[in-house]
Amino acid sequence: MKKFVLSYSLLALGWLSSGAVITLPPYFSDNMVLQQGEDVVINGKSSRPGKKVTISPSWTKEKFTTQSDKNGDFSVSFSSPAPGASYTIRLDDGDARTLNNVACGEVWVCSGQSNMEMPVKGWGQVKNFEQELADGNHDNIRLLQLKRVVSQKPVDSFDMQLNGDGWAVCSPTSLENFSAVAYFYARELNNMLNVPIGVIDTSWGGTPCEAWTSIPTLKGVVDIDEHAAEIEECNGNLDALKAKYDNDVRNWQVALESSDPGMFGGQPVWAMQYHPEWKDMKLPGAFEYNGLPNYDGSVWFQLSVDIPDSWVNKDLVLNVGKIDDEDTTWFNGVQVGQGRDYWAQRTYTIPANAVTGNKALIAVKVQDNSGTGGICGEPEGLSLACGDEVISLAGNWKYHVGVPLAQQPKKPEYPESQNYPGNLYNAMIYPLKDFPVKGAIWYQGEANVDRWRQYTPLFQAMINDWRDTWNRDLPFYFVQLANFLERNEVQPESTWAHLREAQTNALKLDKTGMATAVDIGETYDIHPKNKQDVGARLAKAALAQTYNIGQYEMPWLDSMKVKGDKVILSFTQPLSQKGEGKPSFVICGADMIFHPANAVIDGNIITLSSDEVKHPVAARYGWADNPNCNIYNQSGLPLTPFRTDSYK
Questions:
Q1: Strands of 93-158, DSSP E
Q2: What angle do CA 472, 478, 481 make, to 5 degrees?
Q3: What is the pLDDT of residues 271-295, one digit of tens each?
Q4: Please, what is the angle between helix 452-470 and helix 495-505, to 10°?
Q5: 3-state SS of 484-530?
Q6: For residues 28 and 142, is the Cβ–Cβ distance under 8 A?
Q7: Which of 282, 328, 477, 582 is the most buried (most CB within 10 A)?
Q8: Cβ contact 146:161 at 8 Å
Q9: Angle, alpha carbons 113-648-421 (nearest 5°)
Q10: Measured between alpha carbons, how far apart are the two ends of the chain, in Å?
Q11: pLDDT at 163 over 80
C-alpha cells in the first residue's frame, strides 16, 4: 500500500476544530470517506506541546500513540479499514475529540466548469429534480464541496474553501446545491460496488482548462508556454502579475484594433461615416436570430438619426439597450460610452458639444464572447432623449460583421480571475494532493471551444499534471461536449466539433475513458437538464475499466472504403438508428465541399451516398455544433462523432 502524507502549514490552515483542542485538516471531519486500501497519515495540532497524543480508530483494537512537538504538531499513521461505515476515530491529548460516522470505500474528485458545477436543484434544476431530491437519502454516499477561490501560488490549505463543516451525508438538503453529475456518478457506483462512495466537488462555471493546470506544466503546452513562463517569473507576486496584465492588455488592444476592419490608425472609421449599403437588422434582438446564426465576435451597428433644431447644442441621453456582452458606443464619431456588464442596460450622456447639427450618426460596436449576443432588451430601452422629449431608436439598424471571436487575439485574464492560468489548480486541486482518491471525473471544454487547436495538447497535459500531483496513475473519465446551438446539416468548420475531436484524442492516454453527451444536449441551453445519463455513462466506464464490472465498449469507425459513388464504413460493433431524423452524415468529393448523405445501416456496416457527390473521398459523422447523433450500439451507447479527413 502506498502512503499518503497529509502535510500542511498549520498556521496557514485555519483548521477545523469543532470546539475541540486537537485540530485537523478540513477533509478530516465527521461523515468523511477514506479511500480503501491506503495508508493514511493524520497530521494534527495539539494545544498541549510535548504531550502524548493517542489515536484510537474503531475498526481496530490497536491504539496509535505519538508525542506532539514544541509547537503542538504531531503525525500519526494508520491503514484504512475494510469498506464500511459507522466507524469512529478518537484523538486524545488530554482532551478528546472524536470523528463520527467515518466511512471507508471509494473516493473520486469531480471537476470542470458549469456542467459539472450544475446542481441537482439550485440554479440547475436537472430533469425530474423534485423526484431526485425526494429519493436523495443515501447514507453511503458522502459529499464534499469546495468553495470557489483562486490563488496565484499553490497552497497547501483550503481552510475557507469548504461549504459547510466538511463532509455531508447525501440527503435532499445536502444534495440541492451539489454537483448533479457527481451525485449521479456516485449513485451508480454505490449501487454496483455496494461500498461507501465519497465525491469531492471542485468545479467552477465558465472556466478554461488552463486554469485547472499548473504553471510548470503549462510551460510545456504550445501557444501558452511563453505566457506561462512569464507568469512563473512573477513567482505568484500579485503586484508583478498585475503589471504584466496591464502590459498584456495594451498589447492586446493594439492587436485587436489591427484585426478589426472598423478601425484604422486607431480611429473608429465605421463610427465616423454612414454606410447605407450595409445589411439591415431589426433591434432590439440577438444577432444570432437576425441573420448571424451561431456567431460570436464583434458586430458594428449604425443608425442615422434626425435631430430636432431645439436639441442642437444640448446634452442628450442615449439608451442603446441591454448589451450582450460588451459595447463601445460613438455619437458623431465621438466615443460616449463603453460597457462590459452582460445584459446590462447601457445609458450614456451625449455632451452638448457633440450635438452640432440636425443629423447624428450613432454607432455601436458589440462584442459577444459566447452564446447569444447583440443589442437586446425591450424596444423602450433604445432611445435618444432631450429632457422629456424622446425619439425611439428601435427598428432597423445597419450592421456589419467585425472580427469573429475565433480570429480575435485572446483577451488577457486578470490575475485574480478564476480563468487565469493555474489559479484554480493552485487553490482547488493542489490542496487535495495528499488526500488519497481513486480517480477523477471531468466535464469541461465549453470555455475552450474557440481555441480548439490548443485543446488536444492542453487537456492531455492537464491529465498528466494531476497524475503527477497525486503521484499516481489516476483513472480519468471525462464528458465529451453535448450538442448545442442551431442545427446545421453541413458545418465543416464547427468549433464544437473540433473541440469534441480534441477531447477524443485524450483517449490515447492510459486509464482514460469518455462519456459522450452529443445526443442529449439542448439547442438553446448550454446546460442540458439530463445529467442522469451523463453520470451513468461515466460510471459505466469506470465500473468496466477501473473495477472490472460489466463492459463499456463505445462503437468506433474501423475502416472506410469507396465503391463507385458510395462510401462504405465499417465499425467495431453492430449499430442501429434510434429516434427521429436523418443521422448527421456528410460526404465530400475532391473539391472538399461536404453534402448531407443518405445512410443505410446493416449491422456494423453503414453505406453513405449523395446525389451531389459522384466520387466521394471523405466522410464525417456528427460534425456540427448541434448534430443529430442518433446511431447507437447494442448497449445503448451513442456513436461518437468522427471524420475520415483532416481538411479543416
A1: 96-112, 138-145
A2: 155
A3: 999 999 999 999 999 998 899 987 8
A4: 30
A5: CCCCCCCCCCCHHHHHHHHHHHHHHCCCEEEEECCCCCECCECCCCC
A6: no
A7: 477
A8: yes
A9: 30
A10: 48
A11: no
**H or E segment at 392?**
strand 389-392
**Long-range contacts of range 491-496, CB-CB < 8 Å, 24 or more positions apart?**
491/623, 491/624, 491/625, 492/586, 492/594, 492/620, 492/623, 492/647, 492/648, 493/648, 494/623, 494/624, 494/625, 495/406, 495/449, 495/450, 495/452, 495/625, 496/449, 496/624, 496/625, 496/626
How far is Cα 418 from Cα 165, in angstroms, rounded to an integer?
24
Give the contacts of 593 (CB within 8 A, at least 6 positions apart).
Answer: none
| Three-point CA angle 74, 80, 83, nearest 5° | 150
Average pLDDT over residues 196-211: 97
How many other CB atoms are found less than 10 A from the CB of residue 284? Answer: 22
Cβ contact 544:504 at 8 Å:
no
What is the DSSP secondary structure assignment for residue 407, as one 8-state letter?
A: G
CA distances from 289 to 292, 375, 592 (A): 7, 12, 29
* Mean predicted lDDT score pLDDT of the chain: 93
| Residue 134 cell numbers, joined | 425526494
Show the cell assigned to 308. 430636432
Tell me how crowded residue 81 is: count the other CB atoms within 10 A of its CB.
16
DSSP 194: -
User: Using CA atoms in the order 210, 424, 117, 172, what is the torsion angle rounded to 10 degrees?
Assistant: 160
